[in-house]
Structure formats: C-alpha cells, structure tokens
TrEMBL record:
GO biological process: regulation of DNA-templated transcription
InterPro entries, per database record: Integrase-like_N, TACO1_YebC-like_2nd/3rd_dom, TACO1_YebC_N, Transcrip_reg_TACO1-like, Transcrip_reg_TACO1-like_dom3, YebC-like
Domain TACO1/YebC-like second and third: 79-235
Record's protein name: Probable transcriptional regulatory protein A8709_15655
Record Gene3D superfamilies: 1.10.10.200, 3.30.70.980
Family: Belongs to the TACO1 family.
Subcellular location: Cytoplasm
Keywords: Cytoplasm, DNA-binding, Transcription, Transcription regulation
Domain of life: Bacteria
Main location class: cytoplasm
One Gene Ontology cellular component annotation held by this UniProt entry: cytosol
MF annotations from Gene Ontology: DNA binding
Pfam short name (any one): TACO1_YebC_N
Length: 236
C-alpha cells in the first residue's frame, strides 16, 4: 500500500515545483466544477471536492474566489472533461485527465507528449481497467488506532487504513470521500495533508534507470500541457 501514497506524494512534489502552473490548473478546475451546479460547495459536491484538494496545495483564496465569481458571472466558456490513456517504456501505464475548450488541440498535444518521449497513446479502456478510482485522505499527528476508532464510531467503511510517510492514510471508495472527511471533522480533525480523488494502479512496475529517465521526461511533458489536470501511472 505504501506505493499508493508515493504516487500521490511524487505528484504533489512535482506540482509544488511550479506553483503558478498548479494555481492556474486549480482555477480552471474550480470554475468548471462551479459551473456544474450552484457555485456553493455546500450544495455542489464536485466543487467541494476540488476545494478540499485545493487546501492541501495551499491555493490562495483570491484564486478560488476569482474562479467561483467567474462561474457566477456571464462567462460562456465551455470545457470538456476528457481522459486519455497510454503506455510508456517497459509496460508502464498512464492515465491523463484533461479539461479543454479545444478537443483537437488537446488530443494532438497529449499524443505528441507520448510519442516524442518513448510512449504511445492507447484507445479508451486500454489502461483504466488496471487502476482503481480511490479517495485518499492523509492525516498527521494521529495514530491508526485513533482514526480507526473515529471511523468505526461513525460507521464509515474504508478500504484500508495505514501509517505512511509520518501520517495516517485512509483509502476509501470515491463515494465515501465526504463521509470520511465529515466524520473526521466532527472529531475535531480539520486539516488534511492529502485530500485526493485519485486513480491507483492495481500493480506497479519498476523501470531501469534509463527507462525511468525516459518515463519521467514523458510525464513532465504531459503535466506541462495547459489542458492536463492530472496524470496517474503505475511506476514505482
């Protein structure tokens, strides 16, 4: 299970190296989520999930407010949520989630990022079946036993509960994301180091030094694309 947290940790570390890019991506994601329903996280679950994630990346309130106000206004920008799947070196698998207002541009850019870095884009369903959609929530300064007791008292089911990287990681079904957070908040836990709806590989692969370097270059190229929101993979 430790490999699961590493995937999230690596993604956060990579994103933290370029905060302006992270903030821009969150601004767009918040805008799109707010447009799905009421621009109020209490009545719009999609928006609430994005805002919980944004907190763990320290996205400034000004960026959040700007995106929500834009959704409240007369903006007619329409974005599509599209998922691409592909392969990297030595059997590595990649899922790329995007938000785009130009499907042709995004498809071309994602395909180029794969092909120019030793990978290739697959068809829909070629990779996703090897990943599980998962709610991942990390809590610091608590023990596994303490978190387990809180979850049991609230009758909230989770997949797994482990101590990883000096914190307790809760892995649950995506539908349980809010239930897990709400019962923890009711117990006085209001800060989360991780609050992600992510895709976790069922099996991981280890690459050679050369293969890892090529894979990292491919993932960097994908994450640098303006339309790409998330990149998931099965590499250790």
């Amino acid at each position: 299970m430790g490999r699961k947290w590493n995937n999230i940790k690596e993604k956060k570390a990579s994103n933290d190296a370029s905060t302006s890019r992270v903030y821009a991506k969150f601004g767009l994601e918040i805008y799109v989520a707010a447009r799905k329903g009421e621009p109020d996280p209490e009545s719009n679950r999609a928006l609430k999930v994005v805002l919980e994630r944004a907190k763990t990346y320290n996205v400034p309130k000004a960026i959040i407010d700007r995106a929500i106000n834009k959704a409240k206004g007369s903006s007619d920008e329409i974005y599509e949520e599209l998922r691409y799947e592909g392969f990297g070196p030595n059997g590595s698998m990649v899922i790329v989630d995007t938000l785009t207002n130009n499907v042709n541009r995004t498809a071309s850019s994602v395909r180029a990022a794969f092909s120019k870095n030793g990978g290739n884009m697959g068809v829909t369903g070629s990779v996703a079946y090897m990943f599980d959609a998962t709610a991942a929530i990390g809590i610091e300064n608590k023990s596994v036993d303490e978190i387990m007791e809180i979850l049991m008292e609230a009758d909230v089911d989770v997949r797994d509960l482990l101590e990883e990287e000096d914190m307790v990681m809760v892995y649950a079904e995506p539908e349980a994301f809010h239930a897990v957070q709400e019962c923890l908040k009711a117990a006085g836990i209001t800060e989360f180091t991780v609050a992600e709806l992510t895709m976790i590989a069922q099996n991981n692969v280890t690459l050679s030094e050369e293969g890892q370097a090529q894979f990292d270059k491919m993932v960097d190229a994908l994450e640098d694309l303006e339309d790409v929101q998330q990149v998931y993979h099965n590499v250790e």
